[in-house]
Amino acid sequence: MSQELPIIVPSSESHVKESIAVSETTYRFYREVEVRSEFKRYCEWYSSTAQNNRQELKKMRGELNIFQWFRRRN
Asked: How many helices (H) and strands (E) does the chain have?
């Protein structure tokens, strides 16, 4: 009966440690890829938002400022 069942746990302890190390390395790699992708998306969002804000500011500076009439103290 033991001949029919596949070996699930490796027999040597070093093989187990190696498997765990490989799993940990793989997890860290994919986590690093995920973090960098999130950061890249954030940077792209920030850049586009900043560009939109600069365009709105330029547009606002060209508009008539009616509050300036009330601030004059002549």
From this structure: 2, 0
